[in-house]
Amino acid sequence: MADKPIVLMPEDVQRVIGKDAQRNNIFAAKMVAEIVKTTLGPKGMDKMLVSPTNDIIITNDGVTILNEMEIEHPAAKMMVEIAQTQESEVGDGTTTAVMITGKLLENAEKLLDKKIHPTVIARGYRMAADKCQEFLKEIAIKISPEDEETLKQIAMTAMTGKGAEDAKEKFADIIVKAVKQVQEGKDIDIDNIKIEKVKGEGISDTELISGIVFDKERVSYDMPLSVENAKIALIDFPLELKSPEIDAKLSISSPEQLQSFIAQEEAAIKSMIERVKASGANVVFCQKGIDDFAQYLLAKAGIYACRRVSRSDMEKISKATGGKIVSNLNELTSNELGTADRVEEVKHGEDRLTYVRGCKNPKAVTILIHGGTEHVIDEIERALKDGLGDVVCSLKSEMIVQGGGAIEIELAKRLREFSRELSGREQLAVEEFASALEFIPATLAENAGMDPIDVLTELKSRHDSGEINAGLNLFTNNIEDVLESKIIEPLKIKSQAINSATEVAIMILRIDDVIASSGDKSKNSNEKREF
Ligand code: ADP
Ligand code: MG
């Protein structure tokens, strides 16, 4: 019995244990950080991603790059998740978060080489991260939500170096206006800012519409092209007769019978449209279909109508115009109608869009991006979303920090001071944590063609002499007070990035055994192909 082999796992399971597992994971994480590194900051470069179907994305956005790369390595995938969390929690700072994680792991490797146990490193990192949150609270600066200038600066910092750079002042203005418009107390739902895109004209023609723009045309060309003082009915049932659930057979033996049948149907539709007219509506947005006869009647009544408007657009129009979505024609009265100065159809190239403009105090608005090509428009959209995310974040917490690497240097400095109070090996881990943070300003400098070591040395000495706000201004390539030059970011970007970077770095460090069953692997690759 002693000779009998004990089989724990199937043969095709791949297992990597101990140091090898650790090193592999750290290597993969470092590679991911390396990939996004060159895009960091205002002087960062873009990447061109080409999909198997030859779709092209040109972007500078960390999370977009990682999402498109179809990364397979499990540890590397965890890095991608960090970027995704950062994107959903803050909407910006994805490159920073991934880079800090990569550097934390790279530095941990040095400690592993010195035979420091991973759990000790993990403990040191945890202490350092907690301290960072304390320091961040001390350093962060309170802003007033009324201070629109500062909010604009935050949006501009977020957009520097992206495709939106050329018109960033205008975009910042649009972003702040949009956010303020949809804000309800402390509540800001970014979904109420619709982003719609049209090809043609330049990016500086991008506009904020106090209302909703959606890609539906009026249902019949006999309808007016535009309606002033719009009274809008929002209907989520079809303006057509229900087709019978089961196949019905109709036997008609005389032309009169047919006539009367058609007349009955027409009468039913007529009465529907009469009700719409009676409510006083001159615009109808219908979530379902509108049949030919109903279209004819609506057009005859001078009513502008769109059909098959998406639910999310219906909801946004309702928020913007104050109209109520009705599910039953009997409910439709003038009280349920939304109002807008004008509803019109506008043609952009091949596309026809419906504009609902001039809503009074709308709680949903549209940013209409114009741009020469799809790639330009898409990158502008990503930049705008970064700006929107940062402004919303700053309004929610009312706290900002110094950008241009200043905050990272200050945190590193304070961490080093803190580490001196520690005894034992955690001290080394806290020091490595500090140097991982310094990787951000060093990379900002490197990407701008400056010498990272010179920049880092000067930044550190300025902070040592008490200049908390000394950072790198990449407009002038000077080290200066970045608060004065208005390079500012929301606190949440940094606190979130440091938190998730630490968590994932620790998680990866603690793995000393990777068991990969190949059965799963083939399943995964199948999923990939389908995707
Ligand atoms: P992320 O995906 O992390 O947001 P970005 O490419 O947007 O990466 O770069 C953000 C970094 O660029 C931040 O550290 C920010 O402080 C810095 N930054 C932004 N504008 C400037 C500037 N004018 N000068 C120096 N650094 C800047
Ligand atoms: Mg950014």
- Can you say what the CATH homologous superfamily of the largest domain is? GroEL-like equatorial domain
| Sheet/helix structural class | alpha+beta
Rg over C-alpha atoms, rounded to the nearest angstrom: 29 Å
Termini separation comes to 49 Å
What does the overall shape look like?
elongated
The CATH topology of the largest domain is given as: GROEL, domain 1
Given as residue ranges, the uncertain stretches (5+ residues, pLDDT < 50) are 521-531
Discrete helix count = 16
Oligomer: single chain
Main β-sheet: number of strands, strand sense, barrel status? 7 strands, mixed
Each distinct ligand: adenosine-5'-diphosphate, magnesium ion
Averaged pLDDT = 89
Description:
The protein is of the alpha+beta class and 531 residues long. The chain folds into 3 domains: 237 residues, GroEL-like equatorial domain (GROEL, domain 1); 98 residues, 2-Layer Sandwich (GROEL, domain 2); 150 residues, GroEL (3-Layer(bba) Sandwich), CATH 3.50.7.10. The protein has 16 helices and 19 strands. The longest helix is centred in the middle third of the chain and has 25 residues. It is elongated, with a radius of gyration of 29 Å. The two termini are 49 Å apart. The C terminus is likely disordered. Adenosine-5'-diphosphate binds next to helix 4, helix 13 and strand 16.
From the structure above, extract its key features:
531 residues, alpha+beta, GROEL, domain 1, GROEL, domain 2, GroEL, seven-stranded mixed β-sheet, three-stranded antiparallel β-sheet, 19 strands, 17% strand, elongated, disordered C terminus, binds adenosine-5'-diphosphate, binds magnesium ion
